[in-house]
């Protein structure tokens, strides 16, 4: 583990993928230290093929390069269904933490939900499932390469999330497979965010993405090193940049994981700032964000090894926790994971 001048550690996952038990435990200790202190880490050596990353990045960018009318074709006809294209300033992340006067985020984004639905499995056909697993909106007519690129990338993120959750289990002194049956039918949404150039200065207080925490278990982010990037808030209130390491992913914990660990691990406030005015042109930035959310019926209660203090939270489930977070947002459709990084 190294810090490279940042409060966010950089961790090489290679020993966890290829090493023996001692090597895996050593990486898990590093993950646990980051989870307890800042709730963010950067991971290299993750094993995701670079051509998969580059392909989905290129194909995603084509969606945002469409004309306004072209992008509008891929909006959901039902505003309560969080799929497809969302235009500039249609999201407001700071409002999710109660900032009533928060300005809308200066970004546009595209949302994809889980797509490999087994209609013979009652899990995917229950009344709860019908509220979650909506069909995706694929821009096949204009960007035919997007769906295959996204599907390949999503499956790679599933594998990386499984490895990370195994390391979390080890860090929490649990059996390595403790989370396995709680994430094998996860309900993860993926959001592609486009932060355009800012030729004109935004309103006072408006950001690319306002300060917020994520809702779920963990977030896997691939982004670009451009002016106007991601910052994390330290425990003493400072805003620090999250390092962009070529080929690496940024990982952060969400509110559900903090609650699951009885707040021994932290879900940390973060935001995306505007570029300096003299770098506003050429600052376009794209983020691929995999919001890993456990199975909707996964029980969320104090993890057995996190009882140094009395449990702070009542027993709930993954979907009930998510719905509770959604209901904290005024005028926001259920299950709208309005997050970004």
How are the elements arranged and paired?
Elements: E1 10-12, H1 14-18, H2 21-37, E2 40-44, H3 50-64, H4 68-72, E3 84-86, E4 108-112, H5 127-132, H6 146-171, H7 180-183, E5 189-195, E6 209-212, E7 218-222, E8 230-233, E9 239-241, E10 249-253, H8 255-260, E11 270-272, E12 285-292, E13 299-300, E14 316-317, H9 318-327
Parallel strand pairs: 1-2
Antiparallel strand pairs: 2-10, 3-4, 4-5, 5-12, 6-11, 7-10, 7-12, 8-9, 8-11, 13-14
Q: Would you kindly provide a written description of the structure presented here, covering whatever features stand out?
A:
With 341 residues, the protein is an alpha+beta fold. Helices cover 28% and strands 17% of the residues. It has 9 helices and 14 strands. It has helices at 14-18, 21-37, 50-64, 68-72, 127-132, 146-171, 180-183, 255-260, 318-327; strands at residues 10-12, 40-44, 84-86, 108-112, 189-195, 209-212, 218-222, 230-233, 239-241, 249-253, 270-272, 285-292, 299-300, 316-317. Strand 8 and strand 9 (239-241) form a beta hairpin. The longest helix is centred in the middle third of the chain and has 26 residues, at 146-171. The chain is globular, with a radius of gyration of 19 Å. The model is unreliable at 330-341 (pLDDT under 50).
């Amino acid at each position: 583990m190294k810090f490279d001048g940042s409060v966010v550690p950089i961790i090489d996952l290679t020993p966890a993928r290829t090493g023996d038990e001692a090597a895996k435990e050593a990486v898990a200790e590093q993950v646990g230290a980051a989870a307890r202190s800042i709730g963010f880490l950067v991971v290299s050596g993750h094993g995701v093929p670079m051509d998969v990353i580059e392909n989905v990045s290129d194909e995603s960018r084509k969606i945002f390069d469409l004309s306004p009318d072209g992008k509008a074709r891929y909006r959901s006809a039902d505003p309560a269904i969080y799929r497809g294209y969302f235009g500039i300033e249609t999201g407001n992340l700071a409002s999710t933490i109660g900032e009533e006067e928060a300005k809308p985020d200066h970004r546009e984004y595209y949302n994809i939900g889980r797509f490999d639905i087994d209609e013979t499995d009652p899990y995917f056909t229950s009344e709860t499932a019908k509220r979650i697993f909506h069909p995706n909106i694929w821009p096949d007519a204009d960007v035919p390469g997007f769906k295959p690129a996204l599907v390949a990338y999503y499956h790679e993120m599933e594998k990386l999330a499984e490895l990370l959750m195994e390391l979390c289990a080890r860090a929490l002194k649990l059996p390595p497979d403790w989370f396995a049956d709680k994430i094998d039918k996860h309900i993860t949404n993926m959001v592609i965010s486009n932060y355009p150039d800012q030729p004109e200065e935004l309103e006072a207080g408006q950001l690319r993405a306002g300060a917020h925490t994520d809702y779920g278990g963990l977030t896997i982010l691939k982004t670009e090193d451009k002016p106007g990037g991601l910052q994390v808030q330290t425990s003493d209130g400072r805003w620090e940049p999250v390092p962009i390491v070529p080929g690496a992913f940024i990982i952060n914990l969400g509110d559900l994981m903090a609650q699951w660990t009885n707040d021994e691990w932290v879900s940390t406030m973060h935001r995306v700032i505007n570029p300096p005015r003299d770098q506003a042109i050429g600052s376009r930035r794209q983020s691929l964000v995999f919001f890993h959310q456990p199975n909707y019926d996964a029980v969320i209660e104090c993890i057995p090894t996190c009882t140094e203090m009395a449990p702070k939270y009542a027993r709930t489930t993954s979907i009930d926790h998510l719905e509770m977070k959604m209901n904290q947002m005024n005028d926001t459709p259920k299950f709208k994971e309005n997050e970004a990084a």
